[in-house]
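#structure-requests
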Amino acid sequence: MRHGVSGRKLSRPTGQRMLMYRTMITDLLRHERIRTTEAKAKEIRGMAEKIITLGKKGTLHHRRQALGFVTDEDVVRKVFDDLAQRYASRPGGYTRVVKMEPRKGDGAAMALLELVT
């Protein structure tokens, strides 16, 4: 039974699912907007906000923690230099999920995950 176990499995083994989350968050932070399924968007929203919060803290330890999760050093540099300054006065809620029309092929609920300006 899954009593009290949070998170979605998304029909993937744990390793594949975690790597998918890491690449999606890297792409979100690089392009500041991605189009994906609603379930994936809701799942990675909190993880992306944690990376931005690490950037706001700004210490070497937090930079290394972000480098352990984000797959590109340039994106980590962007988070710590640009995004940390942009969201310095904001206590949270750096991302927004906007629902879109269903995908044509299989009717999956699609969403636009973007960083708030």
